[in-house]
Amino acid sequence: MAIQRTFSIIKPDATKRNLTGAIAAKFEAAGLRIIASKRIQLSLAQAQDFYGVHSERPFFGELTEFMISEPIVVQVLEGEDAIAKNREVMGATNPADAADGTIRKEFALSIGENSVHGSDAPETAAEEIAYFFSGLELVG
Ligand code: DAT
Ligand code: MG
Question: Which of 24, 36, 54, 89 is surrounded by the fewest CB atoms within 10 Å?
């Protein structure tokens, strides 16, 4: 597998509890290099756009309100097989199902307040990176 880039969000439940550094340390320990990082606060329209694929799901309102409730940290992670590696480090969506040592097992509060987002495929990774960062901001 070649070197890939993936997009990550440290979510409001984690920034609020000062877990930004602890989560970044997990990425770095897994061999993922943080090549871009910024702290922002989403508007409701941006949160609805970002999670548009889930717009028909019953939890959409709760999810988008949560995502705008506090600042988030958006990052680009680079490394060997970065998309799958990041999903592995994140753990399962529901922290109750997440493996030991994963971010969600250690830090997530619930299936909704689950501390991190990570792209699920090369196409979504490219789209999500381009939505939040210009090429000049990616310093590999
Ligand atoms: P993931 O973030 O692991 O890629 P997903 O894409 O299926 O998971 O869902 C996006 C987010 O939506 C997820 O991180 C938290 C929220 N979510 C998913 N399923 C949920 C549910 N059953 N109840 C509440 N929130 C949910
Ligand atoms: Mg997803």
Answer: 54
User: Is this complex's ipTM strictly greater than 0.95?
Assistant: yes
Farthest-apart Cα atoms in the chain, separation: 39
Q: Which of 11, 48, 60, 63 to mutate to test the pocket of ligand 1 (most atoms within 8 A of CB)?
A: 63
| Of 93, 126, 91, 133, residue with least CA distance to 110 | 93
> Quick check: is 130 in a domain?
yes
Tell me how many domains the chain contains: 1
> Which domain, by its residues, includes 80?
3-40+72-137
Give pLDDT tens digits for 67-96. Answer: 999 999 999 999 999 999 999 999 999 999
